[in-house]
Write a structure and sequence with these properties.
Layout: H1 34-48, H2 59-69, H3 77-95, H4 104-116, H5 129-139, H6 145-154, H7 163-171, H8 178-181
GO cellular component, one term: extracellular space
GO molecular function, one term: cobalamin binding
Keywords: Disulfide bond
Amino acid sequence: MCIPQSQECDGVKHCFDGIDEIGCATGVFAVQGISESRKITTKWLKNKWSNSSGWQENTHRGIIAWYLATERNDTDMEEKLMVKQLEVETLASLLRNDTTPLTVNQLSMFINALTVSCRDPRNLDGFDLVKILKQQTQFSSLTNHPTSYLALCNAGESLPINATTELSKILNSKSEYPFLLGSPLS
């Protein structure tokens, strides 16, 4: 190498051929211990997952964690099964909506999980989850809006006109957790 080790992988090409920056981890992968943490997380998630029932009522959470901890592998049958279980659970929840209504937070989690798994939340077997969420958000309490807005943004949907004002009220509230506790906004 043409330079001291302290100048390798520092984001600056010190060597004429740029060899000091080749093969360097970037972004989150540059954080010490991140690779080992991802391996541990992946192993833990796999251990909790079942071929027959996924992560049960937490499949949407499991899918989000899975895609944050792993590289996407569209040829892996197990990964395809995980996503199929998500689709089935989402559809089952939508079909039970008359007897057990979905909350905006649950719907938001399904949208985020579908989005991260490269599925279209606007057309899940004919259901437009983004449209449903946008309609339900109008009638839900302010405490649920940040979660809804995140899902809408992730799905590429525009936010309601008053979204910025509502989020500012929550962020500027004197309450420590106004979005969790439902405390009055200051």
